[in-house]
Amino acid sequence: MASLQSSFNNSTHKIQTPGQLLSSWNSTKGTRNLFFPNKRSSIFPSRRLIAVRCSALSGLEVQETDEELSPEDSRPLREIWREIQGENDWEDLLDPMNSHLRREIVRYGEMAQACYDSFDFDPHSKYCGTCKYQGAHFFERLGMADRGYTLTRFLYATSNINLPNFFQKSKASSIWSQHANWMGYVAVATDEEEIRRLGRRDIIIAWRGTVTYLEWIHDLKDILQPAHFRDDPSIKIESGFFDLYTTKENTCKYCSFSAREQVLAELRRIIHRYRGENLSITITGHSLGAALALLSAYDIAEMKLNIIDDRQEEVITKIPISVFSFSGPRVGNLKFKERCDELGIKVLRVINVHDKVPTVPGIITNEKFQYQKYLEEVISFPWSYAHVGVELALDHTHSPFLKRNSDLRCAHNLEAHLHLVDGYHGKNKRFCLASKRDIALVNKSCDFLKSDYGVPPYWWQDEHKGMVRTADGRWTLPERPGIEAHPPDTAHHFEQVIKYARAKLEY
């Protein structure tokens, strides 16, 4: 308790006593049963900063021999993609770090980073809380047109929940929505060359995390509530995450379907369209987005949406579900973790050991506590949390490029995590960048790179804050095309998801 409070110094976070927590827990509202109802170029063209191999940085770190680096995996990804997606819980792939796995972690991390890079968080904009780009041009505007994916749907959530600091609100008098925030997207691999490289058609769900550091976590009250994605009230999820994922607002066209309904409906539509193909479902997110990634993965598996049952052919196909999360908090209790394991959800959690977010909630009781199972099953202890999956723990002090500061925002930063993955080769191995990923990316939204590299902090921003000059010489913020809401067949596909889940339960 004391360690958490000290780590959140200079914040307004208040640690509640168990008695206060229990009082809050007992007074929560009743839950509802939901089961049935390219690489980017640097901004410094004259002095392009590129991550180079260690041998060229003798002044910054000890030169390494080839034996100290993890070897390049010569096998094509298409032959081992199930291993890379966690089929064997990444056994023998993390130490030393498999080259394919490193690239895939970074690739999915960049898909999550795209949520930050495209999010309008300017409170002076009437479009605050939206994605700045239309879906058809999303990857192109972010310099990711060569990724081979097509964005199929934007995801929204309502701010009418108990995590108010997570949402960005406009100060303008006329705004796009009183209730909604853009939360992420669903995309599918459509480029044939990329599909051949991957060995399957990959469906990705990317969740937006937090724009400002730690504000949202102040609202976590360690209140667990039944998930109700199946008939087992002992499986519990933190109430803020649950509300963010399941709440909707009927008066708002963007939130007339909950984030949950949007995800399940879109996934059902894509799976139905590509029925018979080799598919995978990959979910990614950073910070609170990592919590949503795990929660949605559990929901998809619990609703049997990844089970293709062809009774005519008497063939059952299970689409693998993998989560690549970054700096994520705990989501549910030990029963939630055990159920995720039973369902075969594969989770790789990438963390920085100096980041505090992965340590909460669950300060009192978590997966490291010897008697956690007893407390949950016998005493029904209400503040018991457990991480799910395999942890890849990184340490930013091992990178010679980064400052040795104690800024928690830097330790939590997603681009910093991707930088650490790029330089990680295994436990007790020296940090050495494996690719030519631009180190300037680390400073996009923080001040973490050493001053030697001349990269200004917080440099990622829209030119002129989106203002353009008209023909008559006036500067104005242009109107954006109509903001995308929900496809007209959303209700139909969600109803089919529920119908199928009921049938599987009764079958």
Q: List low-confidence stretches.
A: 1-32, 35-65
**Molecular shape:** globular
CATH topology: Rossmann fold
Number of strands: 13
Assign the CATH class. Alpha Beta
What name goes with the CATH superfamily?
Alpha/Beta hydrolase fold, catalytic domain
How does the SSE layout of this entry go?
Elements: H1 2-7, H2 18-26, H3 77-84, H4 99-117, H5 138-141, E1 149-158, E2 180-189, H6 192-198, E3 201-207, E4 224-226, E5 236-238, H7 239-246, H8 259-273, E6 279-286, H9 288-302, E7 307-310, E8 315-318, E9 321-326, H10 334-342, E10 346-352, H11 372-379, E11 390-394, H12 408-412, H13 414-423, E12 468-469, E13 475-476, H14 490-506
Parallel strand pairs: 3-6, 6-9, 9-10, 10-11
Antiparallel strand pairs: 1-2, 2-3, 4-5, 7-8, 12-13
Helix pairs in contact: 4-13, 7-9, 8-14
Would you kindly provide a written description of the structure presented here, covering whatever features stand out?
One of its GO terms (biological process) is lipid catabolic process. Belongs to the AB hydrolase superfamily. Lipase family. This is Phospholipase A1-Igamma3, chloroplastic. Its main location: plastid. The chain is globular and about 70 Å long. With 507 residues, the chain is of the alpha/beta class. Helix 10 links the parallel strand 9 (321-326) and strand 10 (346-352). The protein contains 14 helices and 13 strands. It has a single domain, classed as Rossmann fold (3-Layer(aba) Sandwich), CATH 3.40.50.
